[in-house]
């Protein structure tokens, strides 16, 4: 079994004891690992990507990302919602910086978690939040069930988030983005063995590593051609050579998401 970093970077992580306990369970970075930029790309803004939402606790501490797909519906990862309730989470739109106070804060009136979800490595890592307050931001399109060509190996995908910029590092105050190539299912199976479930997941990253999502990016978007095609889910560490990031394969869940968006 791999030491998979797939905990959400909860505000609880700030609690030293909890962090220490969690760290012990997570993948140990190789000795003297160089800083591994997630999203090794560049800073960006919610003006450029208005559908990228912060998922926060009630004190507006970000712990996951999400994607606005209708004014009142946000797609995120199921693993981000474990232990959460409609009163414990908020969705914040239009806020580029973690320490900002601008944008729109909404409460959540309903949390739908895929009914078969157990753990990220089993798949079904998808959730849909219903917002109490409509977001005044442009929404993202998401793939339909037949759009499977977006996962052709080598296709350029875009990742976004406020997650840590190295394994067990600190979060980025500013939203970041990078592009990574989609990895073939066979190659991802070689990396992850039976934890990689091809009809539920898709991998993206360079074989040499260096660019990836990381803790706190979970739930956020993987875009192909500007369309939501994946949800940041899990991986062995962050940006490690031979271990691409693993994303929820949204085509598989597209109809279920649509049912939630229309409900
Ligand atoms: C996380 O814990 C996480 N390198 C997200 C993505 C990846 C690893 C961990 C992929 O939120």
From TrEMBL:
Pfam families: Trypsin. Residues 38-262 form the Peptidase S1 domain. The keyword Protease applies. InterPro entries: Peptidase_S1, Peptidase_S1_PA, Peptidase_S1_PA_chymotrypsin, Peptidase_S1A, Trypsin_dom, TRYPSIN_HIS, TRYPSIN_SER. Keywords: Disulfide bond, Hydrolase, Protease, Serine protease, Signal. One of its GO terms (molecular function) is peptidase activity. The keyword Ribosomal protein does not apply. GO terms for biological process: proteolysis. PANTHER family: FI18310P1-RELATED, POLYSERASE-RELATED. Belongs to the peptidase S1 family. This is Serine protease. It comes from Streptomyces glaucus.
